[in-house]
What does this fold into?
Amino acid sequence: MAQQPQTQPAVRPKTHYIKGEMVLFRDVERYWLGLPGHTFVGRVERSWTNVHNGKLLYDLTELSGNRARAGIDPDYMRPLPAADAMHDIDTAPLSEPDTGAMTPAAVAWLRQHLAQDSSTLPVRR
It folds into this structure.
């Protein structure tokens, strides 16, 4: 008898966001129409409830163009954790860093802090 493939239950995404959080969101109409430019990074500006259906919606600022996007459905939003954004810096080699393996932001951070006092690194915040 053939063994059934193992499936994992779907993870329900976080559905409540607070002002200032960074999110990835998808313009669902552009996505289903196969149009380019359907996924963006945004910053949550406010939340509100649609009076017609009671659904919680969000207004965002699209970071790539500083454009306001209103009424975004949280089903098409995902959080962008700070740990993911800072992973390259957190895992950067600190002894003789290979600048080719790090992003420019990580290199700039290391140069700034190592130039201040080359004997010690700054205190972790």
In short: The chain has four helices and five strands. The CA atoms of residues 94 and 110 lie 8 Å apart.
